[in-house]
Amino acid sequence: MIYAWQKLAHQQCTSSERLVKKLTEVQLFCFGTAIAMALTYLFQLILFGPTLAIATEAEQRKSNDEEGPSKWRIQADRISRFVFRVHCNIVSREYIAVFILIATLFYWYYSFNGIFSMKTSLDSVKILPKDSLLHKPNSLLTNYVWKENLILTVFVNTHFNMTDRYLTTQFWDVLKELETLPHCKGPTSSYVWFRNFVNEYAKSEQDYPYEEVVDPSRLDNFFKNDRYHFDTSVKLKKSE
């Protein structure tokens, strides 16, 4: 509930809106609490009261047949008194009180730290059923592929004139140097929109097509039919 309240701190909402309209978690918590209280009250009426009545009647019949309390009641009373005295001796000591206070402060610290730093996530582990066979490939993907994978993203912020042979040569040189580094997966694991564009219209499959001629007029059609959605990271500027 505290996390749900905290995540709406930056939204322009009044206290009533944050508590009632926006916080689905709070609504679910209140609804569940109301159901629990109703069931508890119902069980008190139909189970707890009759159980006490039956137990009282049985005790009265037994007390009429026997003189004084039974042996097991005397033994239970002795044990409970002994445990109570030991407990009082322990909690009445000053260093025990200090220890409990320090432990409580540590507990509060980590609790509040976890509340304010937690992040909600929805992954396949939570979506898939527990007996699903997809958990095995998902664990391999999470524990090995993504854990050991380092993705390098390169953004070119300056305008790139693709008709300039000198600039394109520099581009292919840098790309080749990057993809031939040790432990690099190479061109097969790279997504370079310029290489895809050149190879598609040149009918080529070269990793570094130095000699291919580039036609910028085909860019619009390329991005329109591109299955990798490169257009989300490319900004075109047409020269007049």
UniProtKB/TrEMBL annotation:
Q: GO biological process annotations for this chain's record?
A: endocytosis; molting cycle, collagen and cuticulin-based cuticle
**Superkingdom per UniProt:** Eukaryota
Residues of the SSD domain: 19-54
InterPro entries registered for this protein in UniProt = Patched_domain-protein (IPR051697), PTHD_SSD (IPR003392), SSD (IPR000731)
Query: Can the keyword Coiled coil be found in this entry's annotation?
Result: no
Quote the Pfam families the UniProt record gives: Patched
Keyword terms of this UniProt record: Glycoprotein, Membrane, Transmembrane, Transmembrane helix
Q: What is its main location?
A: membrane
Q: GO cellular component terms?
A: cytoplasmic vesicle membrane; plasma membrane
Give the location in the cell.
Membrane
Q: How does it sit in the membrane?
A: Multi-pass membrane protein
* Segments traversing the membrane: 28-47, 95-112
Stored PANTHER family = PATCHED-RELATED, SSD DOMAIN-CONTAINING PROTEIN
Q: Which family does it belong to?
A: Belongs to the patched family.
Name it. Answer: SSD domain-containing protein
Provenance organism: Ancylostoma ceylanicum
